[in-house]
Every structure is written in structure tokens, then in C-alpha cells.
Input
Amino acid sequence: MSCVKPVISVITVVLDNAKGFRQTAQSIINLQYPSIEFIVIDGGSTDGTVEVIKSHAEHITYWISEPDKGIYDAMNKGLAKATGEWINFMNAGDVFFDRNVLSTVFTQDVGDAQVLYGDSIARYPSFQTWRKALPPEDLWKGMICCHQAIFLQTNLIKNEGFKPGLYFSADYEMIVRLYISGKKFRYIPGTIAVFDTRGSSNLNMVKSARSNLEILSAYRTLTRKEKRFHRRFICRSKLTECLYRCMPSTLISSFLKWFYRNQIVHE
Output
């Protein structure tokens, strides 16, 4: 195995989230890895985010601040500028699990794998839960892990990228597309990322669930079991959104903490 470490392009998209970007940037800057290309795509922030970006400019390979057509359009802009062998999308508010993540992943021989992925931690306002990544065979259920915990070979996605019209599920569509086309996935044991549960797909669970079903159905015919699973998941998503609208945030937090009690990560 070559001792030369591959260049990793880490792409961060942000809009009016100065605090979140500062956390993400610090996480990337602290990484103990020699070959990182840090790309930042800001959607035209007016809250001071641009000033925070400028304060980290010496660590940023490329950045731009201009209006875009949504999160996946911004991610495609970052992808167009990436020159690394592998790509990771670590958006504002999300962070790597620790400073040794890249060294752990890319010191080992990944063989002919084209998609590397691992476990993650979901961050709620008052607690955190561990999320075990699923095997790619379970993609029919939804994302096998958060996109922040995935490393993709750049040449796989450089030309086509994300489909911006799928506002809530373009990351899922990309991963399904890669799996259906026979790309080789490899699970890397260990936690890779900590993600904020207040992202757009988490705040639009029903739309996201329906979009996932449409994407999967476009690639192949679903079995009765799979159709039942998705119908039930959409119903649960409707109930969850209803609870979010009707219940006080403190009560929701307490319920979620009880529901995920066996997965809670104690800091």
C-alpha cells in the first residue's frame, strides 16, 4: 500500500449560520491529516457568516458567497471546484467526530472501494445519539447513514453531481444511483461525523419520506413488503411532524430522549 495520502476535498455549504460555520471550520482545520482541500460555498449570507469565512481564509482552498438555488445546487458548486481524490460534504453546523477521522479512514487499505462510509452521532438540543450505519442492501429503507459520514470517489460524481430538483433527497438519490450502478461500498468501523438534526430534511420529514419513495420507485419495482414499509414510514413521519407542531419543544425533547435512551452518547 502506498504511503502517499490521497487528497480529500471537504465541501461546506452555508447560509446565514455564522455560529455553525465556525464550528465546522474549526473541526476541519483541527484534522490531523496532511492533504485536505477545504471548499466553502456560501449562499449570500448577511448575518456575519462571510466575515467568519474571511477570518478562516488562510485555511480555505476556495470560497465564494453568492445566491444559489438551494443546498444541493450549492453542493454542486463545491463539487465543480473539487480536485481531491475523495469528497466529503460537511455542511455548516456539522463536524467530524474527532481530529483523527481522516487518518483512521485513509491510513488503511480501502482496496477497490469507491464509496466509504461509517457511523455517526445525531445531535439534538439537549442530548446526542449514536447512529449505526446500515449495509447498502438496506438502501430500500432510506439512507444507510448521514451524508456527512460518507466519502465518495470524486470521479464517480464529478460530472453528474446532485439533482437540485430533489430538494429534500438528492443525497439519497445519488447514493441509490451509485449502488444500483454497481459501485463498490465499504463500511469503515467507527464514528465519522456528528450532524445537527435540525437540517432541512429532518424538518420536512413527510416530504423527505415521499421523495425517497419516488426515487426508489424510479430505479426499480418495489416489492409489497417495501411498499408497506414506506407507507408506514410516511404515516409515522406525519405523526412526528404533527407532534412537533402541537407539543412544547421541552416535551418533544424529553420524549426523544426517552425514545433514543439506549443510543444516547454521554459526553
